[in-house]
Every structure is written in C-alpha cells, then in structure tokens.
Amino acid sequence: MEEYYDIGDIIMYVAADENTSINVFAPYVNVCQTVHVTSGVQILPLNASLRLRGSELARKGIRVTSDKPITVYVMSSNNNEDTEGYLALPKSILSTQYMIVTDYGNYDIWNSTSEFVIAAVESNTVVQIVFKTNGTVCINGTTYTSGDIYNLTMSELDTLQIQHVHDLTGTFVRSNKPLAVFAGDQCGYGVPGVVKYPACQHEVEQMLPMDFLGHEYITTPLYPMEFYRFRIISQFDNTVVFLQGNNFTINSGDFIERMETTPQYIFASKQIIIMEYGHCHWQRVQINESNPSMITLPSVYSYSRRYTFYPVDMFAGTNFISVIIATDKSEDLMLNSKRANAIKKYYQGNFTILILSVERPTNTLYHTDKTVTFGAILYGTRRFGSYGFPLGIANGQTINPSMTTDKDSATTDSGDI
Fold it and tell me: What pLDDT is attached to residue 323?
C-alpha cells in the first residue's frame, strides 16, 4: 500500500521453528529466490517499487512458499518516520468475502487518502466491490458512489489499490476465488476536529476473513499511549451491540467509534469486526495529539495458547505486548521461561490486561497450563509514530508469528502466503 512519505524498502520477517527453505516470488521486480531460514527469524528487504501508488492495478503480489511451517509479518517501510506493520495470513484461510476497514481520509490537511488493496491468489478471479463512502471514487475515469458496484477480473498475483479522500469503511468485497485484502490509510491522524495537533502516520492491516470474526471482545489500552480509539463494524444488518451498559443496533458496514483510556467489554448479537487505533504523541502536552497505528483486535474465542515473536528491531522506539487474559490465570503467564512482569495492569470484568516490555530478539509467551488461551498484541511507540498488530488469531488453527512444537497448539500452514 502507498505511504505518505513513500520511501524505504518494505521489510518482511519470516519466522520458523525449525530449519526450512522458503521461496519468494515477486514477478514485478523479477525476484524468484530461495532463502534458507534457520530456527528463528529471517529479515528480507523487498524493493520499494512493489509498493502500490494511487488507484493502480499491477502485478505486484508476492508469493512466499515453504517446506516447513512459517509465519510472515511485514513492516511497510524501513523508513523510521512512517512505518506500520501487519500479520500476513496464510493462503489456506483466505476467503471470498471481506469487509473493508480504513480510517478517516485526511486529504484536506495532509493530502492523504483512505485506501485498500485486493490481491488475487489465482488467475481468473472475478471480484465485485460494493462501495460504502461519502463522495465519489474515481476508477479509470468512471465515478462510483456509495452502493455502486465495481467489477473486474484479476490474474494470479494481480493487485488493485483503491484510494479515496473519504473513509472507505464498510465497503464490501466478494469474489469467486480466495483473495488477500489489506486496508488502512496513506497517512491517518484520527478523528477530524478532535485531534488538536494532528500528525499523520501510515496505517495498514490485513483484513480478516469473515469466518474469523467473533461476537465477544475485550479492548486494550496501549500504554504508554494516553488514549486509544476503536471501531465496531457490523458484518450483518440488525446487529445489536452491547457496550458500556447501552445497546446499539447497527447495519452491515456501519460502525460505532469510541475514544477510551480503559479496557471495554463488547458483545454483539452477530459477528463484528473491532479495529483499534493506537495514538502515539509527538508532543506530550495534550492527550489529543497523535500519530496513529491500526490494529486488528482478536475476539475472546480466537485467543491462542502460545506465541513466539520477534520485536521489530528496525523500529526506533520501545516494543510492548498487551496480553488479555482471565484474571484467575494471569499470575502464571510466562515470558521467556520467567513469570511475566507487567509494567502496567488494567482490569475489565473477569479479565486482566498486562502490558509487558520486550527487548530480546526472540520472545516466547505461554501459560504454565497449556490449555489456557489469551490474546496478545505486539506494538511499538516512539515520539513520532507507532505500529501494532495481533500476535495471533485462532479459529481452529492459529495464525501468529509463532512456531510451537506443542501438538495441541496449531501453527501457520506450510505452503503459500
């Protein structure tokens, strides 16, 4: 996806629990290379020309295959001023239906746009986009407004980026074959009229397949950020959302947004998406000054049992984990074979949120009771920015920067990503 500064290579992290060989195929830059990865993490730079620019259709997809289970996560740039990250999902769980979540388009202040990218996995993929937005989206000289449908057929590893000066949240994507879908903002800063001293930051996440969405969530503060923002996006019409003692009914593609300083419990009658936005401060004078990051929040029933991860070493800031765990299990959480020592704790109902600082190149997070599941988000803060993404999303299998030998803990698939 396009970044505001649009400089620096894309950085891909490949994590493996055992020695493996991976193949990276990026036809746009004539790359087809095999890399041998020892147990741990391999950092691979990708040419900046693979970054999409404007509303562009190009064969800029990247295929990563392996002979052993791996996990891939990506930082959008090695430029410290404008980097964000996302967890890459394996091909085996990709879907044909997605709801887009972006952020406010900030064209008036930063000449920045909301944006999303569709990547085709197979040839002859027929894609239908149903727009939801204010204003008009222009594609190849044709304008589309909310409710309009754009159809196209994509070839293997084709990528389509669509940008708009307004929020594109609620736009629906369907296809006849599985897709990978990414969304965010070229350089978002948050709620118009609320952020007093806006400073923008690139935002990106890979959208979850609809089968991975849940009903029950615990939101998490992102200490030391003084506040965070979250969106609740409905997948279906007539979805009743229970939040802060109130009931709200929202329809497909609509959302509720809140700015908070404490954890919140959210339950919905139908499947919903929750996207958090961290806000890191560039001047610590007011709480409404921010460079945001965009983080997919896992539902309570998609927590995993174990995570092995690698803090982003090219990020010139401090790395943290936010762990969401049942309070009666929180004392036996382990980080690198020691009891996890939280630098900050929050409480919400029967859950505790533990904020852990991480510095080692490799970290393993698990519970002494192997049946206990918990949520975990890796994020980083610095004076001029932040990044963040979930360490795992489970739904019968785990998708996380984590390789575990425990048979009862599923891992990412070997094969295509």
Answer: 98
Q: Quick one: which of 389, 394, 412, 403 has its CA closest to 75? A: 389
Give the span between the Cα atoms of 118 and 183, in whole angstroms. 9
What are the residues whose beta carbons fall under 8 Å from the beta carbon of 87, sequence distance 6 or more? Answer: 71, 73, 206, 296, 389, 390, 391, 393, 399, 400, 401
Residue 327 is classified by DSSP as G
User: Per-residue pLDDT for 416 more than 90?
Assistant: no
pTM to 2 decimals? Answer: 0.89
pLDDT of residue 169: 95
Beta-carbon contacts of 142 under 8 Å, excluding residues fewer than 6 positions away, are: none
The DSSP code sequence of 97-113 is: EEE-------HHHH---
E strands along 214-317, which residues? 214-218, 228-234, 239-243, 246-250, 255-260, 265-280, 291-296, 306-309
Longest CA–CA separation in the chain, Å? 59
**Mean pLDDT (whole number) for 305-313:** 79
Whether 378 contacts 276, CB under 8 Å: no
Please determine, for residue 119, whether its predicted confidence score (pLDDT) is greater than 90: yes
Neighbours of 41 (CB within 10 A): 21
Residue with tokens 């990506």: 74
CA distances, 372 to each of 100, 158, 368 (Å): 32, 40, 8
CA distance 330 to 357: 16
Instruction: Tell me: cis bond preceding 69? Omega within 30 of 0 counts.
Output: no
